[in-house]
Amino acid sequence: MEEPGDRRPRIIVDIDNTLWHLAPELWEGLKKVNPEMPPPAEWDSRRSIERFMPIKEFFRVLKVIHMRQEIYPPFPDAEYFLRALKERGFYIVIASHRSPETYEPTVNWMQKHRLAHDEIHLSYDKSVLFPGSIALVDDSPINLSKALEAGILGTGLLFPWNENSGFPLFKTLIEVLGYLDSKLS
Ligand SMILES: [Mg+2]
Questions:
Q1: Reported pTM
Q2: Are the beta carbons of 94 and 16 closer than 8 angstroms?
Protein backbone atom coordinates (compact mmCIF):
# COMPACT_ATOMS: atom_id res chain seq x y z
CA MET A 1 0.00 0.00 0.00
CA GLU A 2 0.95 3.61 -0.48
CA GLU A 3 2.47 5.05 2.69
CA PRO A 4 1.93 8.70 3.59
CA GLY A 5 4.83 10.59 2.10
CA ASP A 6 5.40 7.99 -0.62
CA ARG A 7 7.02 10.05 -3.35
CA ARG A 8 6.77 7.56 -6.16
CA PRO A 9 4.78 8.94 -9.10
CA ARG A 10 1.48 7.07 -9.27
CA ILE A 11 0.39 5.44 -12.51
CA ILE A 12 -3.02 3.84 -13.04
CA VAL A 13 -3.27 0.76 -15.24
CA ASP A 14 -6.57 -0.73 -16.43
CA ILE A 15 -7.06 -4.51 -16.75
CA ASP A 16 -9.68 -5.31 -19.43
CA ASN A 17 -8.36 -4.76 -22.96
CA THR A 18 -5.18 -3.35 -21.43
CA LEU A 19 -3.56 -6.33 -19.69
CA TRP A 20 -5.66 -9.01 -21.42
CA HIS A 21 -8.03 -9.32 -24.35
CA LEU A 22 -11.48 -9.22 -22.77
CA ALA A 23 -13.40 -8.17 -25.89
CA PRO A 24 -13.66 -11.52 -27.76
CA GLU A 25 -14.51 -13.40 -24.56
CA LEU A 26 -17.22 -10.89 -23.65
CA TRP A 27 -18.68 -10.96 -27.15
CA GLU A 28 -18.94 -14.77 -26.98
CA GLY A 29 -20.78 -14.49 -23.65
CA LEU A 30 -23.15 -11.80 -24.89
CA LYS A 31 -23.98 -13.73 -28.06
CA LYS A 32 -25.29 -16.54 -25.84
CA VAL A 33 -27.80 -14.03 -24.42
CA ASN A 34 -28.64 -12.54 -27.81
CA PRO A 35 -27.11 -14.00 -31.00
CA GLU A 36 -27.71 -10.66 -32.72
CA MET A 37 -25.22 -8.89 -30.46
CA PRO A 38 -22.86 -6.94 -32.76
CA PRO A 39 -19.05 -7.04 -32.38
CA PRO A 40 -17.31 -4.97 -29.66
CA ALA A 41 -16.28 -2.28 -32.14
CA GLU A 42 -19.94 -1.25 -32.31
CA TRP A 43 -20.54 -0.90 -28.55
CA ASP A 44 -19.99 2.80 -28.45
CA SER A 45 -22.54 3.65 -25.78
CA ARG A 46 -24.79 2.14 -23.18
CA ARG A 47 -27.72 2.63 -25.56
CA SER A 48 -26.03 0.62 -28.28
CA ILE A 49 -25.85 -2.32 -25.83
CA GLU A 50 -29.40 -1.84 -24.54
CA ARG A 51 -30.75 -2.32 -28.06
CA PHE A 52 -29.75 -5.99 -27.64
CA MET A 53 -30.17 -6.74 -23.92
CA PRO A 54 -30.91 -5.07 -20.61
CA ILE A 55 -27.73 -3.49 -19.22
CA LYS A 56 -28.09 -5.75 -16.16
CA GLU A 57 -27.60 -8.78 -18.43
CA PHE A 58 -24.48 -7.21 -19.90
CA PHE A 59 -22.99 -6.70 -16.44
CA ARG A 60 -24.02 -10.22 -15.37
CA VAL A 61 -22.09 -11.77 -18.29
CA LEU A 62 -19.12 -9.49 -17.57
CA LYS A 63 -19.06 -10.54 -13.93
CA VAL A 64 -19.13 -14.25 -14.84
CA ILE A 65 -15.98 -13.66 -16.90
CA HIS A 66 -14.31 -11.63 -14.13
CA MET A 67 -15.08 -14.37 -11.58
CA ARG A 68 -13.09 -16.82 -13.70
CA GLN A 69 -10.33 -14.34 -14.56
CA GLU A 70 -7.69 -16.93 -13.64
CA ILE A 71 -8.35 -19.07 -16.74
CA TYR A 72 -7.48 -16.29 -19.21
CA PRO A 73 -3.96 -15.42 -20.36
CA PRO A 74 -2.69 -11.82 -20.15
CA PHE A 75 -1.26 -10.12 -23.24
CA PRO A 76 2.25 -11.53 -23.90
CA ASP A 77 3.97 -8.24 -23.00
CA ALA A 78 1.86 -7.44 -19.89
CA GLU A 79 4.37 -8.91 -17.43
CA TYR A 80 7.27 -7.04 -19.00
CA PHE A 81 5.27 -3.80 -19.19
CA LEU A 82 4.39 -3.75 -15.49
CA ARG A 83 7.88 -4.82 -14.41
CA ALA A 84 9.34 -2.02 -16.54
CA LEU A 85 7.03 0.53 -14.85
CA LYS A 86 8.12 -0.79 -11.47
CA GLU A 87 11.80 -0.49 -12.43
CA ARG A 88 11.19 3.11 -13.48
CA GLY A 89 10.02 3.84 -9.93
CA PHE A 90 6.26 4.14 -10.44
CA TYR A 91 3.69 3.30 -7.80
CA ILE A 92 1.31 1.10 -9.82
CA VAL A 93 -2.42 1.09 -9.13
CA ILE A 94 -4.29 -1.56 -11.10
CA ALA A 95 -7.78 -0.13 -11.60
CA SER A 96 -10.63 -2.08 -13.15
CA HIS A 97 -14.29 -1.34 -13.68
CA ARG A 98 -15.56 -4.54 -12.05
CA SER A 99 -17.46 -5.78 -9.03
CA PRO A 100 -15.48 -5.71 -5.75
CA GLU A 101 -16.67 -9.33 -5.38
CA THR A 102 -14.24 -10.30 -8.15
CA TYR A 103 -11.25 -9.16 -6.05
CA GLU A 104 -9.96 -12.64 -5.24
CA PRO A 105 -9.84 -14.06 -8.79
CA THR A 106 -8.34 -10.75 -9.92
CA VAL A 107 -5.55 -10.85 -7.32
CA ASN A 108 -4.90 -14.53 -8.02
CA TRP A 109 -4.61 -13.79 -11.73
CA MET A 110 -2.16 -10.94 -11.15
CA GLN A 111 0.00 -13.21 -8.97
CA LYS A 112 -0.24 -16.22 -11.28
CA HIS A 113 1.14 -14.19 -14.17
CA ARG A 114 3.65 -12.18 -12.10
CA LEU A 115 1.92 -8.91 -13.01
CA ALA A 116 3.71 -6.33 -10.84
CA HIS A 117 1.61 -3.80 -8.95
CA ASP A 118 1.32 -1.96 -5.64
CA GLU A 119 -2.43 -1.77 -5.22
CA ILE A 120 -5.64 -3.05 -6.82
CA HIS A 121 -8.68 -0.80 -7.09
CA LEU A 122 -11.96 -2.35 -8.24
CA SER A 123 -14.90 0.02 -8.58
CA TYR A 124 -17.25 1.61 -11.05
CA ASP A 125 -15.41 4.94 -11.10
CA LYS A 126 -11.64 4.90 -11.34
CA SER A 127 -11.49 8.66 -11.98
CA VAL A 128 -11.38 9.21 -8.18
CA LEU A 129 -7.75 8.06 -8.51
CA PHE A 130 -6.75 10.62 -11.14
CA PRO A 131 -5.95 13.61 -8.90
CA GLY A 132 -2.43 13.04 -7.61
CA SER A 133 -1.58 10.51 -10.32
CA ILE A 134 0.78 11.10 -13.23
CA ALA A 135 -0.73 8.89 -15.96
CA LEU A 136 -3.51 6.49 -16.95
CA VAL A 137 -3.12 3.45 -19.23
CA ASP A 138 -6.61 2.51 -20.43
CA ASP A 139 -8.48 1.67 -23.63
CA SER A 140 -11.69 3.51 -22.74
CA PRO A 141 -12.14 6.92 -24.41
CA ILE A 142 -14.41 7.90 -21.49
CA ASN A 143 -11.68 7.21 -18.94
CA LEU A 144 -9.03 8.83 -21.16
CA SER A 145 -11.21 11.97 -21.44
CA LYS A 146 -11.55 12.12 -17.67
CA ALA A 147 -7.77 11.76 -17.35
CA LEU A 148 -7.29 14.65 -19.75
CA GLU A 149 -9.72 16.76 -17.69
CA ALA A 150 -7.79 15.86 -14.54
CA GLY A 151 -4.59 17.02 -16.26
CA ILE A 152 -2.83 13.66 -16.32
CA LEU A 153 -1.29 11.78 -19.24
CA GLY A 154 -3.55 9.21 -20.92
CA THR A 155 -2.53 6.42 -23.26
CA GLY A 156 -3.37 2.78 -23.94
CA LEU A 157 -3.92 0.09 -26.54
CA LEU A 158 -5.56 0.80 -29.86
CA PHE A 159 -8.87 -0.92 -30.65
CA PRO A 160 -11.73 -0.39 -33.10
CA TRP A 161 -13.80 1.28 -30.35
CA ASN A 162 -11.17 3.94 -29.60
CA GLU A 163 -9.34 4.43 -32.90
CA ASN A 164 -11.05 7.72 -33.69
CA SER A 165 -10.88 9.16 -30.19
CA GLY A 166 -7.77 11.25 -30.83
CA PHE A 167 -5.80 9.86 -27.89
CA PRO A 168 -2.23 8.51 -28.25
CA LEU A 169 -2.98 4.79 -28.57
CA PHE A 170 -0.71 1.97 -29.69
CA LYS A 171 -0.80 -1.61 -30.93
CA THR A 172 1.36 -3.08 -28.13
CA LEU A 173 2.20 -2.36 -24.49
CA ILE A 174 5.86 -2.05 -25.50
CA GLU A 175 4.89 0.93 -27.66
CA VAL A 176 2.78 2.34 -24.82
CA LEU A 177 5.86 2.09 -22.60
CA GLY A 178 7.93 3.93 -25.20
CA TYR A 179 5.35 6.70 -25.29
CA LEU A 180 5.31 7.00 -21.48
CA ASP A 181 9.12 7.12 -21.50
CA SER A 182 9.11 9.91 -24.06
CA LYS A 183 6.60 11.98 -22.07
CA LEU A 184 7.58 11.30 -18.47
CA SER A 185 11.38 11.07 -18.47
MG1 LIG B 1 -10.37 -1.50 -20.34
A1: 0.95
A2: no
